[in-house]
Amino acid sequence: MNILVTGGAGYVGSAAARWLIASGHRVTVLDDLSLGHRAALPSDGVLHVGRIDDRQAVLRALEAGACETVLHFAASSCVGESVQQPRRYWSNNVAGSLALLETLIDAGVEQLVFSSTCAIYGEASDAPLTESTPAAPGSPYAFTKYAIERMIADLSHAHGLRYALLRYFNAAGASPDGAHGEDHDPETHLIPIVLQTLLGRRDRLTLFGEDYPTPDGTCVRDYVHVDDLARAHELALDWTAARREPGGEVFNLGTGRGHSVREVIRAAESVTGRRVPCEVGARRAGDSARLVAQARRARDVLGWSVEYADLERTVATAWAWHEAHPDGYASPV
Ligand code: UFG
């Protein structure tokens, strides 16, 4: 397939782009490099630097790659930041996606896979979350992702798009060859912060709240390896391409296992043999107590399964990347 990947220089987007290239697909990336990294992609001209709301940039990228289908990752994606800067999220995510979709529809693109999030479920019960668990977004970030899901469904109805909405749980880990991993600036995600603390790049980890209604009082998340997510995109592309009718589905992508913040710290300590200096701080605005997937639909409909079911194995891949790249992609090679 000829695939346009928006936000394809970011953490999950680049993992999907590399995966698809390795599987023999023709990939064209559109990324404005505001958050992404050129070095996250092969250096053979797949990258077009541009914004999703720049109609000409999108058209040029579509044409350069003769793209018939699109993976849409480009977004601002930090829960805490979205509470402080909601305008940025509504503008980049919602207005940006609307502009992109208008261009894609006008250009005759009929297939789309969208990078959504489990944050849409908000505060939920102890049961694993299914796609029919009612949405209850708890942050501007989550609301914008939910709004885009709805936008895609509405535009599909009117314009005949075929689509898959992939709700990731917490993307984690790095490529098994140690060459590509998570590098955000500023870094806000738990596993990289834990590992940077273990490398001595930070004094300590601040644990955001231990008074949640969970077994050890810290938030529980479902950490899914980034290459498992990447493979799900290939399956979702196949599924969308094979659909006869316009319309689409939502798919949860997670391991089905929840781990608390304290369990993540213990996993990192076990992988590295070092202790994480840690202090307990206040809750972070927008955080949910527990987000764990039930991903049966992805298994039954897409044929997806998780290769990295064990948290320590996922953390070990992240550790290999961080140890070799203490400054992320800016590290000397
Ligand atoms: N945490 C800490 N200390 C830190 C960083 C994080 O205690 O320094 C805690 C958080 O409070 C949370 C857990 O670790 O309980 C995981 O936090 P992350 O920031 O790593 O990830 P989120 O759970 O916030 O992830 C959410 C959504 C994802 C979404 C992501 C985008 O669940 O679907 O935000 O950033 F993609």
What helical percentage do the residues reach?
Answer: 25-40%
What is the CA–CA distance across the termini?
Answer: 32 Å
CATH C-level of the largest domain: Alpha Beta
The CATH architecture designation of the largest domain is: 3-Layer(aba) Sandwich
Largest sheet: 7 strands, parallel
Walk me through this protein's architecture.
The chain is an alpha/beta fold. The chain has 2 domains: 2-170 and 224-253, Rossmann fold (3-Layer(aba) Sandwich), CATH 3.40.50.720; 190-221 and 256-294 and 307-330, UDP-galactose 4-epimerase, domain 1 (Alpha-Beta Complex). It is built from 10 helices and 14 strands. The strands form 4 sheets. The chain has a 7-stranded parallel β-sheet, sandwiched between helices. The protein has a 3-stranded mixed β-sheet with strand order 12-9-14. α1 (11-22) packs across α7 (226-242) and α6 runs parallel beside α8 (261-272). The radius of gyration is 19 Å and the shape is globular.
Summarize this structure briefly.
The protein has 333 residues and is α/β, with parallel strands linked by helices. The protein is built from 10 helices and 14 strands. The strands form 4 sheets. A 7-stranded parallel sheet has the order 3-2-1-4-5-6-11, sandwiched between helices. Strands 12-9-14 form a 3-stranded mixed sheet. The protein has a two-stranded parallel ribbon with strand order 7-10.
